[in-house]
Design brief:
Elements lengths: L4 E8 L3 E2 L9 H15 L10 E5 L11 H8 L8 E4 L5 H14 L5 E9 L5 E3 L12 E3 L9 H7 L4 H11 L4 H17 L1 H5 L5 E5 L2 E5 L11 H5 L20 E11 H6 L6 E10 L9 H11 L9 E4 L4 H10 L15 H4 L3 H18 L4 E8 L3 E8 L2
Parallel strand pairs: 3-4, 3-5, 12-13
Antiparallel strand pairs: 1-10, 1-11, 2-10, 5-10, 6-7, 8-9, 11-14, 13-14
Helix pairs in contact: 1-2, 3-13, 5-11
Length: 399
């Protein structure tokens, strides 16, 4: 018997800029906030009935260490009897968490799972590896915010260790994606995000945090720049490669945030008074060369479409996480989509909103689910590129 899996609720924190409004919030407190909000919004659901909490997190080197999901569940007030696991597929962690939760329900291992992801990139620590020998006088300091650290020389020899921005430059060069096209895409992301402000506010829960001597409530995304213009974007200097085309304006931000979804079987939703908002379909992951990691969604989407015996045209909403404009355009052009296709990231994406690594997959899945609930689409495809060369894709259907 086929077990249908539904997203029954979704909330998220605002997305903060690096060193911004949420920088004072620990990663485990940030992750706990949407879990606590979901429990408060769904009073008919006995928290003890939640059979697993699965959260994605890409860093796990600081306050997010020691199983962030378990810490967040306990901080949120879920019973100690509710188990939790943290998964790491870098940028695809939050989406993979949702897929793992859906798979557990589909196979009968659980009836209700809370899945999502969190990242505090502002609070990612510097780390020092242990000395290789006694009396070592050359400790090496590593920044864990984003990208490679403690590199294995075998990986470096076989695949290189180019930064995320350099991988976007590789795609721009290989696929002749002009700077003008990247900036035009970035501007559309900002404009679409601005036009969706009211819809986006419905998914955000406020976060209280200390700023100086005051406690303030952060209730809106901090990263969008509604004042941006094409002229302004064109004046930004390349950020990763001399003579390149990838800039701070056509790339995602470095951010803080958390998101979570309630996943349930049809029977469990009925028993616990939950309202399905979207049905979870299939999931696929694929690998590519690390130096072109941004192309990962191409094989992931194709694999998912083959598994579901579907065509891309069957989906009237497509969310592709915007790590870089060059990366999104590589994917959309390879899939035969127009640069400005209205059903691709119709409410903007990470270039405007920001990209807290472990959170983003849960965010775009939740945003797509709410669009399906509103009747704005019937089927949605959600996809992301992943550092070190992977792609993930998930399908959703209207209830």
């Amino acid at each position: 018997m086929v077990v249908n899996v539904f997203i029954c609720d979704y909330v998220r924190t605002p997305i903060g800029r690096y060193g911004g409004a949420l920088a004072g919030v620990r990663a485990d407190d940030l992750a706990a906030a949407p879990l606590k909000a979901l429990a408060a919004r769904n009073r008919a659901l006995d928290p003890a009935a939640v059979e697993e909490v699965i959260l994605g997190c890409a860093n796990q080197a600081g306050e997010d260490n020691r199983n962030l999901a378990r810490m967040a569940a306990l901080i949120a007030g879920l019973p100690a009897s509710v188990p939790a696991i943290t998964v790491n597929r870098l940028c695809g962690s939050g989406l993979s968490a949702a897929a793992l939760g859906a798979a557990m329900i589909r196979t009968g291992e659980a009836e209700i799972v809370i899945a999502g992801g969190a990242e505090s990139m502002s609070r990612a620590p510097f780390v020092i590896g242990k000395a290789e020998r006694g009396f070592d006088r050359a400790p090496k300091l590593e920044d864990t915010t984003i990208g490679w650290r403690f590199v294995n020389p075998v990986i470096e020899r076989l695949y290189g260790v180019e930064s995320m921005g350099e991988t976007a430059e590789n795609l721009a060069a290989a696929h002749q994606i002009a700077r003008e096209d990247q900036d035009a895409y970035a501007l559309r992301s900002q404009q679409r995000a601005g036009a969706a402000n009211a819809r986006r506010a419905e998914e955000i829960i406020p976060i209280e945090t200390r700023q100086g001597r005051e406690t303030v409530s952060v209730a809106a995304d901090e990263h969008p720049r509604p004042e941006v213009s094409l002229d302004g974007l064109s004046k930004l200097k390349p950020a990763f490669r001399a003579g390149g085309s990838v800039t701070a304006g056509n790339a995602a931000g470095v951010n803080d945030g958390a998101a979570a979804l309630i996943l349930a079987s049809e029977a469990a939703a009925r028993t616990h008074g939950l309202t399905p908002i979207a049905r979870v379909g299939g999931f696929a992951a694929a690998g590519v060369e690390p130096r072109i990691m941004g192309a990962g969604p191409i094989p992931a989407v194709k694999k998912l479409l083959a598994r579901e015996h579907a065509d891309l045209g069957d989906f009237d909403r497509i969310e592709i996480n915007e790590a870089f404009a060059a990366q999104v355009l590589t994917v959309t052009r390879a899939l035969g989509l127009e640069d400005d296709a209205p059903h691709v990231n119709p409410d903007g994406g990470a270039i405007a909103l920001g990209h807290p690594l472990g959170m983003s997959g849960a965010r775009i899945a939740g945003t797509a689910a709410l669009a399906l609930q509103r009747g704005a689409a019937k089927r949605a495809l959600v996809s992301m590129c992943v550092g070190v060369g992977q792609g993930v894709a998930l399908s959703l259907e209207a209830v």
